[in-house]
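Give me structure tokens for this 302-residue protein.
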Amino acid sequence: MKAPPLLRSVLFCPANEPRKVRRLSAAGADVAVLDLEDAVAVSEKTSARTSAREALAELEGVCRAVRVNAFETGLTAGDVDAVVSADLDVIVLPKVEAAEDLRRIDRLLSRAEAANEVAPGSIRVLALIETCAGISAAAEIARGGGRLLGLAFGAVDLGNDLGLPTLRGDMTAALAYGRAKIVYDARAAGLPPPLDGPFMQVRDQGALEEDSKISRGLGHGGRICIHPDQVPVVNRVFAPDPNEVAFARRAIEAFADAERAGSAAITVDGTFVDYPVVHKARRLLALADAVAKAEGRRPTRT
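Here you go.
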């Protein structure tokens, strides 16, 4: 699996904590990320590379990723060399602030793929946008390379960069601009809807659900998870609403009948339906099919 069919839930786990790593495959996330960056103590970063490489081979039924350290640390090249293998699908690159960062990681990956007999260009990149500079350059970053799988919003680091004087308070207002901007930048570049950042109150599932509904309303396609218990909530919120799926099916069928009769503007269940609505309905059903496949259910048919 070199690219995930879905980007709803991306679950991070310290690469050097075997007990947590063993839970990744069964958590139900679309992407499992072995973390070499913020979740790993400085003294453990080198040895964690070996742990990540070994753990990749044990992950099953999930897109396999590694978050490397940012370029500013001087550790990125060593991380890439250590983890690139046939078992790796995605590199998560933190602190992306310019398209040049994507070109740099592409060069490192190309070299490592060649050294490890991995198909050239097969490993994708998820870019974390988590600084003011990154938010400002997000449109350029979104157009920055063929390996780019998508963008993700780094709320915690951005809050730090903004100098917000809170550790547990609500940062929604201060982060609103960047949280929305990367949605437009990603879509303008032809990328999938981006991922929202993690919700830090890991035991408050109700608040996670409400905040994820805000994310979905802004146009995010999923979000980063930092605990396995968050995955079911995120998967549910970012899956299509069953009522919307049923309406999309009715709208497509009714529009097809009307189109054969020469009409391209109709009303279905009191809602106006024309070509843009039908196009959106088809995208909704495609997402529903992808979710059904990921969860082992029977796909929606039109």
